[in-house]
């Protein structure tokens, strides 16, 4: 199980996705932990069993147990926060933004890995989940921590690519099942 297996599973019409998947993995300027944590968190965010299995299997050899747990925690907490904060934003009544969320989020303060890595993974998952407020918040923290925009963009490219892999493989499975 691996990134290569995902690339091989993609149909011919998804050649660009295949090439992008190879590129985001092999040309990254992120640290190995940042890269593989982002890949794992994004895989979890897609909810695709195939993508989760393939990426988690390869990430297991590249991440510590703590980093793996933190990447999965980023996906879990953002599954909640992205819905909440996107909804508060979309309602359009700023009064909701002044109310306490009353949702436990202690993992954000103590993720078990470098805070910058965790913030990067939260940003990537927020891109998949489409929460503008969370994207703005995590990008601000990353920039204030000194992370260059180019590395933040890499996390967005990872999110976009992993999401496209999952969408393509799920669609292809559904299309071939109906034939």
CATH superfamily: AhpD-like
So what's the oligomer here?
single chain
Structural class: mainly alpha
Strand portion: under 5%
Shape category: globular
Unreliable spans: none
Domain module tally: 1
Q: What order do the SSEs take from the amino end to the carboxyl end, as H and E?
A: HHHHHHHHHH
The biggest sheet amounts to: none
**N-C termini distance:** 27 Å
Q: Notable features of this structure?
A:
single chain, 179 residues, AhpD-like, 0% strand
Walk me through this protein's architecture.
Helix content is about 75%, strand content about 0%. The longest helix has 29 residues, at about 150-175. The model has no long low-confidence stretch (mean pLDDT about 95). The chain is globular and about 50 Å long. It is an all-alpha fold and about 180 residues long. It has helices at about 5-10, 15-25, 30-45, 50-60, 65-90, 95-100, 105-110, 115-130, 130-145, 150-175. Helix 3 (about 30-45) runs parallel beside helix 8 and helix 3 runs parallel beside helix 10.
């Amino acid at each position: 199980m691996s990134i290569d297996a995902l690339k091989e599973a993609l149909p011919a019409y998804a050649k660009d996705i295949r090439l992008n998947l190879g590129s985001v993995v092999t040309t990254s300027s992120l640290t190995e932990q940042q890269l593989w944590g982002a890949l794992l968190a994004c895989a979890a965010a897609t909810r695709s069993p195939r993508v989760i299995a393939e990426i988690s299997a390869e990430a297991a050899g590249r991440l510590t147990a703590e980093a793996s747990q933190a990447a999965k925690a980023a996906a879990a907490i953002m599954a909640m926060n992205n819905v909440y904060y996107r909804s508060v934003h979309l309602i359009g009544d700023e009064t909701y933004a002044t109310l306490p969320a009353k949702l436990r989020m202690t993992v954000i303060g103590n993720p078990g890995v470098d805070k910058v890595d965790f913030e990067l993974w939260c940003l990537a998952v927020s891109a998949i989940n489409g929460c503008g407020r969370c994207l703005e918040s995590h990008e601000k923290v990353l920039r204030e921590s000194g992370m260059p925009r180019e590395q933040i963009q890499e996390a967005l490219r990872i999110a976009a690519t992993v999401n496209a892999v999952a969408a393509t493989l799920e669609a292809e499975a559904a299309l071939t099942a109906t034939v």
